[in-house]
Amino acid sequence: MSAAPNTPSPEVADFESAPGPLVVAVVSPTSLGTQAAHEVTPAVNALAEVVRVRTLAELFRWARQSADAQTDSGQTDVSAEGGADEAAPAAPATVALIIATDEVGSLDDVADAVAHYPALATARLVLLTERAELHNLGRAIDEDLVREVIAVPWTPGAIGDRAWAQIRRWMRDHLPEDDPRRRQDGAGNGHSPLLEALTRHSDVLTAELIAACEQVLGPRPRLRLPAGVRLTHQGQIVDSVYVVISGAVALTRHTRVGEVTLHHATTGRIIGLVSLASHGRAFVTATTTTDVELILLSIEQLDRALRENPVTEQVLAALIIRSLTKRLARSEILQVEKIELAAALDAERLQVQEALTALEQARLELLAQERFATLGELAAGVAHELNNPVAALERAGDHLREDLAAMMATHPDGETIGRVAAAARTRPAASTRAERAARKKLEQTVGDRELARRLVAAGFDDDADPDTLRTLAADSGRLATVEAAASIGRSERNMRLATDRISGLVASLSTYVRPDGEEMVDVDLREVVEDALRLTAHRLEEVDVVRDYPVEPSALPSVPGHAGELVQVWTNILANSADALAAQAKEAADAGSTPPAARVRVWITAVTGGVRVRVEDNGPGIAPDVLPRIFEPRFTTKHGRVRFGLGLGMGLAKSVVDAHHGSIAVESEPGRTRVTVVLPTQQDLTQAAPPDAPVGRARNGLQKQSDKKAVKKPRKRPHKRSRSSKEKS
Amino acid sequence: MKLAILVVEDEPEVRDAVVGDLSALADTLRIEPAEDADDAWEAVADIDDDGDLLALVLADHRMPGRTGVDMLVEMNDDSRTAAARKVLVTGQADQADTIRAVNEAGLDHYIAKPWDPVRLQQAVRDQLTDFVLEAGIDPLPHLRVLDRVRALEALR
Question: What are phi and psi of A547, to 5 degrees?
């Protein structure tokens, strides 16, 4: 709904401050209009001039001319003191009232038009009609244009009265307080006694009511009550009313949530009357809250007073209306408050819901961290427990060799056995293909397949001297000795390789310990990446791992960090690559096509102020809609799969990198996904961690480090590759 | 004609260990180590060319290239290998792989790493005996590597 035309707007404010003469426009094509104009003219004579037009079009033309006059007269003249005096039209005329008959057409058209003419913008409209039903005035009423409907024929003089009253109201609404025309009062502002009574104060009305009753009933005794007296009880039958002369009474009602005060300041002066109207039972409990003076009237007494003194009726009605109006106003305010409260509650509930979600998320995160820490401890424990048997194995192997060597010193074939065993010990494991080929060649020399096999197993190849081979083949005892010696050497080699592998795994697992207690140390990222590769080796079995970084020591600067945490970064990254590549292979296999050979490249390079590690795979890539989410905590595309120690994904990687003041970024397209991590080589110990970095470990670590003024040496571990054929260098 | 055992295992140390544990049978049996599935097929061809008979395959599951189970499935479709007994020797196959191995590869036995050499030898004897009895081969030349009681009972 647009603003009502008669509410002050900046546009009309100008001529409100100094309006020109007021006009009553009578619009009618018939003589009815003339008749109306004839009657209105004397009535409004003192306040406004009457303009008689036959059509709306004529009215609008008049209004346009009026506007033109305003433009011509110029804004400077408007400030001149305006008045009803036509001799000095300092400001353009304003139509205060339109009296139209319903022959002029749709009133909605009028409503549509008035807004366009400043002269008409604040006009009120009185409709003259002969019809019993009216249509086409929805908009006119909606915009507060129609003020009165007068039926034709009207009582002589009535239309003049109405026009006068409407002009007065227009002046009240639109003329400034100090405009002299406002004070031009006329006679005949005829209100009913009831409407008149409504303007009086409650105290006055109460006194009048009591006086009116006492006129019939004789003097009523005043009851003086202290606070806390109940005048009515909720649910009790009511057959009398209290008229409160002074003091306060509260109305309360018992509800499911206890005693609720419905009214205190808005109780009104008559207690019990509403109950009379609602089946005679008290709707509320009325309790005095101060010292109270009142009179008590039984129904019969009130009835008699009403019957015998007409004044009683009016005053009572006025008091009741006032009281109910106050109560209604209060309940309306309460209703609004209730709705506002409900909205506020909804908002709060939403906030609580959000807080709860965040809490739950935090809980899950903690749980995940806890699980992770437990796994870390477990891994550390297992690693520790493995150290003993591995050490024993390693030592036992060495002792065995020494003892064997000591024994061999006195053995007749000791020299041969020692030589063959040493050769077998140092010979790298041959491929089965090569051994088979060697055996086939030897078979041609010695003429026996089984013998050839034994010779190959004993370490002879096709280059061996045929005479030696034949001599050996002829001496089965010696051949058996040589075979056993080779087997001893081979076993020694295998034992050493196996214990080395276990040692490497144990060392890698050890870095997986709970990071809380760990101090920042100088970390060689190559070792960290190697640890991660070793820990994910079982998932990278069919992947060609390409290492692109220098192997010589001190070729790369070290970075301060928690090795254990950092290993998790690349374990997660590599596990993701492994999964992506496995998924690609499976998809290709399902489709019957050949996937590109799975490959993971790892670059480690020194950059300004840091070390950059890039891990790139040639997997299917990360979907663009998923890419922005991969650092979210616990985000995973692997539905319902929890992986041992690796279920935390990139969110964990990011939090570790953040804690190390580094950066992590992921670029991805089909066939190429690259995760780049840059870690700073130095961290300014005097500078606090950035506000968004986790306050916990990184700073604690720095603190401890600077306190102790000692930096733990990097873990001493030869930088060697696993000898497993599963890892390709 | 010799009965042959194919040992398919990609890690040399583990392969050596299996072959070493079977060396007691090496006089009577032909033991062919292979490092992957392709190599295994080459060994199969050799065995066939030499007129020997592949009786048993001991396969690791996780290997570069085709897995052990894949290889055993293939072997079911080749006349030279279809009748051979098939045993998975692995420390890492998950349940789904194992089920597939039983259902599709006609897996006869499953040996977990690390293994007990006595039980490994016993398992090999059992499998070889089953093979000999099923194939209707005269058990006598191979008696050293068979379960004697069962083999001799079959002769009666």
Answer: -100, 125
Asked if residues A548 and A629 have their Cβ atoms less than 8 Å apart, the reply is no
Structure-token match 């009240």, residue found = A172
User: Which tokens in the block code for residue A571?
Assistant: 């374990």
Buried b vs exposed e over B72-103: b needs ≥16 C-beta within 10 Å? bbebeeeeebeebbbbbbbeebeeebbebbee
Pair of tokens at residue A405: 């060597």
CA dist., res. A377 & res. A371, Å (int): 10
CB atoms near residue B27 (< 10 Å): 9
Is A541–B34 a contact, with Cβ atoms under 8 angstroms apart? no
Structure tokens belonging to residue A173: 């609404």
Give the pLDDT confidence of A344-365 residue by residue, as tens digits: 999 999 999 999 988 888 888 7
Query: How far does A710 lie from chain B, in Å, by closest CA?
Result: 43
Q: How far is A379 from chain B (nearest CA, A)?
A: 18
**Which residues in B have their CB inside 8 Å of a CB on A?**
10-13, 15-17, 20, 23, 32-35, 39, 42-43, 46, 50, 62, 64-65, 92
The strand ranges marked E within A499-597 are 521-523, 544-548, 559-561
Interface pTM (ipTM) of the complex? Answer: 0.80
Q: Does the distance separating the beta carbons of A432 and B35 come in below 8 Å?
A: yes
Token pair listed for A566:
């950092």
Let me know how long chain A is: 729
Which chain B residues are closer than 8 Å to A429 by Cβ? 12-13, 16
Q: Do residue B17 and residue A494 have CB atoms under 8 angstroms apart?
A: yes
Report which of A520, A658, A540, A669 is spatially closest to residue A602, judged by C-alpha positions: A540
Q: Does the distance separating the beta carbons of A432 and B13 come in below 8 Å? A: no
Q: Which residues of A touch B65 (CB under 8 A)?
A: 542
**DSSP assignment string, A18-34:** S---EEEEEE-SSHHHH
Match 């570790």 to its residue by tokens.
Answer: A656
Q: What is the pLDDT of residues A246-297, one digit of tens each?
A: 999 999 999 888 888 888 888 888 888 877 777 778 888 999 999 999 999 9
The residues, any chain, with a CB within 8 Å of residue B137's CB and separated by 6 or more, are B53, B131
Q: Per the CB < 8 Å rule, is A432 touching B11?
A: no
